[in-house]
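Is this the right way to post structure tokens for a design question? Let me know if I should format differently. Anyway, here goes:
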């Protein structure tokens, strides 16, 4: 049974009106190939922004730079006008899910979340709260992560991202492994959080689902931002968004 979408943002967060995520002329190359090419994009508080593009387009690289996991060659990537590395307690401002396989396979899901609570100085009651939110049962949380399906690992990763009740969520393909009902639940959860002032940057291949829930879409191809705007604006300028997406990204899909 899927969990109900509940209120998780603290009331003080409703005051956020600033640009919470900002990429400014961001560049990164690997092996002589420009993976991110002068990416400039702003994401405001209280919105869901779909970050769309084929494999190899530069989405994951940009998110890794934003989260301080890789250094840019040029340009900046900031959260609340600061680099991630300079945030005093980053987990309390930014929740991230980049890799569903990041958890130690020999630990239980509950142990993984408890370790994160210890790291961030959070009360252990948060473990049960986020498990309930993402729909992992107590019995499932006591299983070793190595036994989890991809969908269960994605839910665990989302639970981990939500532990600090963050103002910003940065998610890379969070719907992978979820069935259609789970994808719909995830979309409702993200819309609920955005409605409470949280900022969501969502990288995904699920074009139709992202178009349905996103306030804005940003399409990246070959490291460059090729379109950005509200879905209605993009449809007015380019017609069907799916057709436009495939037209501007045709032939650019590479192995992830």
């Amino acid at each position: 049974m899927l969990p109900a979408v509940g209120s998780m943002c603290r009331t003080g967060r409703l005051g956020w009106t600033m640009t919470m995520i900002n990429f400014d002329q961001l560049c990164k190359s690997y092996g002589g190939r420009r993976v991110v090419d002068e990416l400039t994009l702003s994401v405001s508080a209280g919105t869901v922004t779909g970050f769309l593009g084929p494999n190899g387009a530069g989405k994951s690289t940009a998110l890794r730079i934003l989260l301080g996991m890789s250094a840019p060659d040029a340009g900046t990537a900031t959260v609340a006008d600061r680099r991630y590395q300079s945030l005093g307690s980053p987990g309390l401002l930014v929740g991230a899910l980049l890799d569903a396989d990041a958890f130690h396979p020999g630990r239980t899901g509950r142990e993984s979340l408890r370790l994160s609570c210890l790291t961030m100085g959070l009360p252990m009651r948060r473990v049960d709260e986020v498990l309930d939110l993402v729909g992992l049962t107590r019995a499932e949380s006591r299983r070793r992560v190595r036994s989890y399906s991809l969908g269960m690992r994605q839910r665990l990763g989302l639970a981990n991202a939500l532990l600090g009740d963050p103002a910003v969520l940065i998610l890379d393909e969070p719907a992978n492994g979820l069935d259609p009902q789970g994808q719909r639940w995830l979309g409702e959860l993200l819309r609920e959080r955005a409605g409470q002032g949280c900022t969501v940057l969502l990288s995904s291949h699920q074009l139709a689902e992202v178009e349905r829930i996103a306030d804005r879409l940003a399409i990246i191809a070959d490291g460059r931002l090729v379109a950005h705007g509200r879905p209605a604006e993009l449809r007015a300028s380019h017609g069907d968004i799916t057709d436009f997406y495939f037209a501007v990204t045709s032939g650019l899909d590479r192995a992830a």
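Format looks fine. Someone answered above. Worth noting: The first helix runs from residue 59 to 66. The beta strands are 19-30, 33-44, 48-52, 74-79, 94-97, 168-172, 199-204, 216-221, 224-229.
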